[in-house]
Amino acid sequence: MEIKIYAPVDCFAKEMSKCSDPTFANKMLGDGIVIEPKSNKFISPFENATCSLVFDTKHAYGFKVKNCEFLVHSGIDTVNLNGEPFNTKLKPGMNIKKGEEIFSVDLKKIIKKGLSTETPIIFTSTNKDLRIKNFKEGNYSQGELICTFEISESKKVNEENQSVINLETYFGAANKYAQAAYDLNKMVGSNGNYSDVYNCMTRLRFKILDKTKVQENQIKEHKMVKGLI
Which of 9, 88, 143, 159 is most buried, taking the most CB atoms under 10 A from its CB? Predict the structure, then answer.
């Protein structure tokens, strides 16, 4: 199966491993590409897609394409902006075609805050293999074909035997994630050992006071953790 990826904005496209954020560069959520946008209005990078999730701060969006899941994450650490630079009419369940707007963003506001505008386009289906074909790093005009994602069934089966990460379920399942939050809070030394904590779709970040109290090995072994930085 092949899925074509088009430039959602005028941009420079590069390999995922070159993203400035290690969570994406290390492909903890999956492989894909990263774009550096040059304009504010984003259109769908897919020929046909269904929106599966709009994060409440409007910086990240989930899409289903041919029974595969994708994540478009606008900017790095932009969750802290509380949606201020973003505007969208997209809602879960909406069908989107190539060329239709998915969101807009004030890039100047992101840059003014000292944040990166890098936007990963990530393939997040967990038991499918991805090969990126015909990709060359460089400048692309909005709507121009960037590359093709060649997708095949993986021989690997994840712990819950799920073929696709349902992003809405993944980031909104109360009981499962409440238990994970309880576990991780203990493993970092409880709430007396960090001065701040926040999360977005892609990571849970603590400002640790005493690193010796953090149980790094146990965190890495936790079934909900994809990686530790």
Answer: 9
